[in-house]
Task: inverse folding
């Protein structure tokens, strides 16, 4: 993923954010959620199939890892009540693979 935070674009992989299972080396649910944010232009609404009840728990874990990695204090993903969606406070895109 390419994440733009604090004016700098970072290319990150699951291992950079401690988002690989220690048991089998596969990406964690937090990485899957990050991919969903990238596919949905940084926003996941309650109407999207990616927005399930467990998203709240995974969103908290993802936020903590992003805060630690980027050295930020404010929550990187916020809930917008009126629109009923989570939105990233950073830009994210998934690079095209040839």
Result:
């Amino acid at each position: 993923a390419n994440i733009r935070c604090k004016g700098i674009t970072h290319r990150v992989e699951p291992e950079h954010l401690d988002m690989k299972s220690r048991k089998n080396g596969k990406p964690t649910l937090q990485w899957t959620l990050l991919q969903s944010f990238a596919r949905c232009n940084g926003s996941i609404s309650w109407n999207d199939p990616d927005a399930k009840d467990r998203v709240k728990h995974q969103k908290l874990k993802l936020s903590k890892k992003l805060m630690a990695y980027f050295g930020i204090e404010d929550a990187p993903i916020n809930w917008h009540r009126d629109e009923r969606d989570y939105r990233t406070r950073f830009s994210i895109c998934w690079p095209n693979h040839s």
Observations:
- Residues 16 and 55 are 21 Å apart (CA to CA).
